[in-house]
Amino acid sequence: MAPDKVIDVTGKVCPLPLITLAKEVRKMQKGQLLCIIGDDPIFEQSVVDFCREGSHEVLEINREGKKVIFTFSI
Amino acid sequence: MNKKGTILLLSGEMDKALAAFIIATGFAALGVEMKMWFMIWGHNCLKKRRGLFSWRRKPDPAREGTYRDLETDNILQPMVEMINRGGANHLPLSQLNLMGLGPKLFAKMLKKKKISSLEELIKDADDLGVKFIICQICCDALGLSVDDLIVPNAEVKGVSAYMKDTMDAHVNLFI
Questions:
Q1: Architecture per CATH, A5-73
Q2: What is the least distance, in Å, from the CA of A12 to any CA of chain B?
Q3: pTM higher than 0.80, yes or no?
Q4: Is A14 labeled as catalytic in the residue annotation?
Q5: How distant, in Å, are the alpha carbons of A40, B56, B95, B98 from that of B102?
Q6: pLDDT, tens digit, for every residue of A21-69?
């Protein structure tokens, strides 16, 4: 499934990926898919926690070297 | 019930304010309803950097008179304003200040590591809906005007409101 929105926070460090993620999620509607790409060492844990707190379902996690690509539904 | 948190920032140093705002923005991004309280020097990070002669400005009774007692002001309020010019990117460090060199080196380190500056974090906190509340007696004693802050919606309240907010919250930090 193609995501409705892709955001790239590569190069951003804690807490900026979370801030960007929260701002984008607020603009989207329930059921839409969001893809986020980041490479901060604690990025993966941050997004996992974000999804758990907001009850978002993680659909896919891909790793490409340092980069982690998450797809989850709002 | 929504998760709630409060942070009371008393310190006017950049490192401590940075810690407070990183926690506030991170928590707010994770859906926690955050309220930040500012006391004594804590409000310095919210102040727009004051000019050299801003202390000569007379307080407006119609606005500042609503949360301050202007009649008990004396020469000390403008003196504090003259020395304590604030500004998020002009704060000292609590350690290794090196007479003003420390904050400049610190800012360089943060920039190299792509960590947000304090001013950017304050704006992000405002965008995420973090509430800013300044202690009323601090405004009065230090002659602070809340009209000239980098966040537009700061409120002025007292300890009873702080009690209600902290008792409602799951976490309260004092920095």
A1: 2-Layer Sandwich (3.30)
A2: 6
A3: yes
A4: yes
A5: 26, 30, 8, 5
A6: 999 999 998 889 999 999 988 898 899 999 988 889 999 899 998 899 9
